[in-house]
Amino acid sequence: MPQAIRFHRTGGPEVLQWEAVDVAAPGPGEARVRHHAVGLNYIDTYHRSGLYPVPLPSGIGLEGAGVVEAVGEGVTDLSAGDRVAYAGGALGAYAEVRNIAADRLVKLPAALSFEQGAAMMLQGLTAQYLLRRTYRVQAGDTILIHAAAGGVGLIVCQWAKALGATVIGTVGSDEKAALARAHGCDHPIVYTREKFAERVREITGGAGVPVVYDSIGADTFMDSLACLRPLGTMVLFGAASGPVPPFDIGLLARMGSLFLTRPTLFTYTAGREDLLAMAAELFAVVAGGQVKIEVNQRFALADAAAAHGALEGRRTTGSTILLP
Fold first, then answer.
1. Listed residue (155, 150, 168) closest to 238, CA to CA
2. Which CATH class is domain 3-121+272-323?
3. In 213-289, which residue ranges form alpha helices assigned H by DSSP?
4. What sections of 163-247 are H helices per DSSP?
5. In the CATH scheme, what is the code of domain 139-262?
6. Which ranges carry the Enoyl reductase (ER) domain (predicted)?
7. Rounded to two decimals, what is the model's pTM?
8. How many CB atoms are closer than 10 A to CB 213?
């Protein structure tokens, strides 16, 4: 029988178990995919910890790449042998084989590897909607991205630079600052020794930035608001340090009629046509060399607990994949 990572209770990485699972024939609208690589993302830790509750017991993981083995009734745009990748749908990517709704799958171009596919779908599609839809970055903009040396951060830095933006990014160490700079970050700020809100004001001559992309949450939220120019956009797309506590929204008015949004990838990709268009744009910038997908850590799928520990311990850079 194929194996998969599952968890029966919420908690730390130790709750992740390597178990045999039964994978039935794909049902109507489904495809069976044999994974060649699986993506690791911070949202996986939210599901495992219970921050984002899911029914238990549960599989885990939202991103993978592999080959279609079979399709169910009604699936007409995929067939056995197709190379595919995905981000989203039901939990369960941490598996050797799985069934998934076929409308969540996109064909992976021959120019891109399975490792690239598994490493870039969730993070790359996130970067796409951040830069091209939530706030559409234009040449000449100066932006702030937190966790600039992380998976989303490195993609955002490269893509924003290709769009003609000046990129400011926060990082946790000099090593991560060097990595971010090598990927298009003009002004890496080491937040462990510098106050990033003050540095952003210095870099922008006191003007502030039109947009902040913040996946950290509680620890950075108020200072992120302080980085914005009037009518600026605060994009809170994660909560690595915990959720932002309630606050008086009148503060947004007092700080310059600011905009605040809490987007999710799954809203932006809910429509099949949106998913395909976003993926096509992502694949184009990766295949064209404007964005390089950095797979800096690889773990055996069975060692997912160790991978979670490394991710939560901030011992990773770029993308991490799990190999069945």
1. 150
2. alpha beta
3. 221-226, 250-254, 265-268, 272-287
4. 174-182, 196-203, 221-226
5. 3.40.50.720
6. 11-322
7. 0.90
8. 30
